[in-house]
Prior knowledge:
Helices cover about 10% and strands about 45% of the residues. It is mainly beta. The chain has 2 domains: about 1-30 and about 355-374; about 30-350, TolB, C-terminal domain (Neuraminidase, 6 Propeller), CATH 2.120.10. The two termini are about 20 Å apart.
Amino acid sequence: MNRWTSCIFFSLVAAATVLTGFSSAAPIYNITPLVPSGSDHESYGTGISPSGAYVTGSKATTNGKTGLLRTQADGTVELPELSGDSHPYVEPSAVNNHGVIVGTAYATGFRSGGLPLIWENTGTVAQLPLPAGFGVGIANSINDNGLAVGAVGTAERAATFTTTEATILSKTLPDGGILTAALDVNNGGQIVGTASDPNGDAATRAFSLTPGSPYATDLGTLAGDDTAMAFGVSENGYVVGESSILGDGGTPFIWSVTSGMVEIPTNGYQNGTAMAVNSDGWVVGDLTGMTTVPFLYDGHQTYLLHDLIPTESGWNLSEGLSDAARGISEDGTITGRGLYNGERTGFVMTLVPEPNSAVLLIGSLLSSLWIRRR
């Protein structure tokens, strides 16, 4: 290796070391409120499309709740409501890459008398159908193929919905456990949620159901626990949720076919729940102690969202009793709720691009070496 080649080699190694340092650093986010222009009511971010282009949630009104949709082009706007005032508490839960939203309208603030709803990207709202013999239901998620999932009945049964029909999920766990609530679905049709224990115990099971499978998969629990719930599934099959001892607080987990159920570090907090995950294995959810604190887990380390935003932003994501992270997109955008200037407010957090300093350093080194060579 001649002197010129050596200079280039060791300079690139140094620059690559700097680049590695940047890529392993904590992510940095900007944060904006999820509220319509001029609104002074508390709000909540509940769902985000895989692309990150659409965010949905709700805001409190004088006599109920109203759904919200945020896009880059239009900002945050209110969603239309069902005619009449019998179900004034409207809570959208998920939005797909086409901007189609599903959620539930409740008769009371205690979430009674739910009716599953769908908002098409034409700006219209309609009730999703219910199976024969069922008068109530909820819609929790929808994929790009228009398949929505949720639950129906007061003694819950997991169900799927389209705009024309509703179907009870009749498949069970291998031991006969009944699927009681479908909580998320990805674009491959994989459904996750909760199932009952066929032995009559109060413990719940976390399940994953893939198209064509004869049974739903029981995801098990973390060591020493006896109950689990699955809340979110990524496009490539990661599943996240909570594992616990019945009647006690839970621990967040991430599950995959290759690794099984893995505990997510809680950074000293008593309990936690994982709510959503993207294809990179980035997980968001909540940690609980004296307060509720939203977190991000990047597959290696757990970060408190409050530590990832500008210090003078006006946001406090560490001291509220109902702070939460509820959705994460493929590009890392996060939605949930925190305290903004002291008010409970929905948020949208977007990643700040990683510094280009290392790339600039490489270019600068090569340029200087080229000049010296000449």
